[in-house]
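Hey, I was hoping to borrow your eyes for a little while. I've been puzzling over a protein and I'd love to understand its fold better. The fold is given in discrete form, as structure tokens running alongside the sequence. I'd be grateful if you could look everything over and explain what you see. No rush at all, and the record is pasted right below.
>
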Amino acid sequence: MLLRLATEFRAAADDTVRARIVRALLPAQDAAWACAEPDQILRKVAAAHGGAAGTPRARELALRMFGCLADLAKDSVHVRSIVLSGLRSSNAAEVKAALFAAGCFCKLSEDFSYITLQVLAGLVISPKSEAQVIMAAIRTFSKLGCSLAVIRRVHEVGKQMVLGNLEDVFKAEILFALSRLASKSIVLFGDQVALLLSFLGHESSLPMRTTVLKSLCFMFRRNTFYLPGASTIFGTLLQLIDDEDFPLDCKSYAFRILQKILCVKDPSIRHINASELSKLALAAKRFLHCSSWEMQYNALEILLDIFFCFLKQTKLHQTIGTLESSSFSYTGYPGISNYMLSTHEETSEDERSLNKILTAIVDNIISMANQLTNCRSKEVATGHIYVSSCELEKYRALFSLLLKLVSGYPSSASAALDKQLVVLNHLLNQRLEVSKLLAWKLTLIWQS
């Protein structure tokens, strides 16, 4: 099949046909091709690139074709020279196509990665390079990850560029590319986090700080790291959350990062002391009244994870003492009941304080569910009400949060169930389809 495609690619009189062939192969660009005559395939594609009547578009497509056939072409000296020549072209589209091919080769070849890195660095710092070429070159950095040695070298070069005189837009892109690489290496993870934190100060532009937070979110997404400096991250991100001038969507990124850190099953979490967790709890408490539904939900997630963190890793009396002294005990929210969540009689002041925290979490979850329901009630007074997929996801998220609570702390199940029965009755009266979802969640909670 590949030989036939290569033959058609060379013989095509119209670049549209070549483009279709490339698009067909793009989804399989990382495939390990098995064919009897790889050299013949490469010669046919090279002929389309170097033909006398070849157009710039034909050369561009040939380079992308080589990228799709990287498993066959990565060790060919002739093809490598074609790709490297394309990187020095004066045509921006051809350079970008060569960058695509080089990136595909670098995933498989360590020696070609070092060669490509030198060329990429030259493209990024060259005053003659167009902005689109620089951005494409920077994005290729993240593909140079075939070995730890290569990743380390790329990180060194990228760090030098970031600390140099590049424009902020390019620095931000490099930081994200380096973050993608560093997330693969436990050795570089901490260094990259420290580099990112250095760009979160007020002297950095808002777009730069936004990119840094997105990069941190990307790095923490898998929860597979060891981070002795977790306390430093906590302090830095808490300052951003407390900054009134910092945009709400950026604070949302900060909350997500902190939540990921709390969920890590790693000794590094022990470096986060109770006072820092208490400060985060207070910050999350403020966002329970936020106009943004997403921020309210993030705040609830944070509070729940803080609770579990205290429950598992701190002695109960130390935990509650810290929380109570910081005025974390929840008051003033409409609809909060005074009864405790525990199914048994509390025997200590610590336990009563802990149950106040749980009551706040449960009541806020139920209140947010009621807000969604009331919005639908205003739109349609009678008849069958259907919720959108977006609203259905919100219901699912809220009651999954309750399920997480009672799974981790079963003694909260009784009160949580009582509150959800009230909401379920309200939903059934409106015949909302989401009541089916709620009934299923209630069953899971009861079983827990």
User: Anything to note?
Assistant: The chain is about 70% helix and 0% strand. The chain has a mean pLDDT of 77. The longest helix spans residues 349-379.
